[in-house]
Amino acid sequence: MENLLLNIASIMTTMILSLTMVYVFKIILDKYFENKTNQNASTEINAGNKAISIRRSGMYLGMIIAALGAMSESVLVQILDQILILLFMGSAFIMSDKILFKEVDNTKNIANGNMSLAISEFGLFIGTGIITYASFSGQGPWYSSIVFFVLGQIVFIAITKSYEKMYANIDKKVIEGNISAGIMLGSVMIAFALILKTAIIGDFTSWEEDIESFFVVSIFGFIILIIFANYIIDKLFLPAITIKEAIEADNIAPIILLSSIKIGVALLITFAI
Fold this sequence. Notes:
It contains 12 helices and no strands. By secondary structure, it is an all-alpha fold.
């Protein structure tokens, strides 16, 4: 009974701290949005701007996913972890603007209703939340969380950029507002993050062993994902159309199907490795 009460207290502490940090993030984002667009984000969402709502949903949900790895009996440790989570999610916001979609001002573009970009960023923020969760999970020196988050994000962004090139610069289609491109890219980022979670999560043993394991699992997982999800699965489930053709035509139906399968394959890989 005592252990149950301690667990409930820990969960409540995590929930309160998480929601507090989400609200702090909201305040920061609202101010940034207002400075960029001279608009109020909440007013725009209430008026029906789905793009802003989707982007914010990814940010908030990503932070809550990340907080699952930061649960601790120490309130001080949880507070410090929550601050790191806020910084980690903020870094994803910057990476989207400066690396993945550097050709446009993301905030202004989404304020103008670019659903495709919002969906892609949703995948980015959920993926970042998953990687952050994995970085905080397990026992080890506190700075190991930062090191493995940075490693995870570097590989995450590098693989995403490579994927963009594989599929005829899908990022440009996203910027143009092609919704099927946004769904595909967003889902692929979630799938990549799930594989990276497997490469990161666990107790710290040694830098040499853990970093070696990180790269081995990452590379193996991505190869399997590319072979199965990008070639075999696509041909089996939709033999009459290619991903490229579906994206070119902005055909959302087959892309939704393939995207769900890619995430499913990533989940299978994470349990198999």
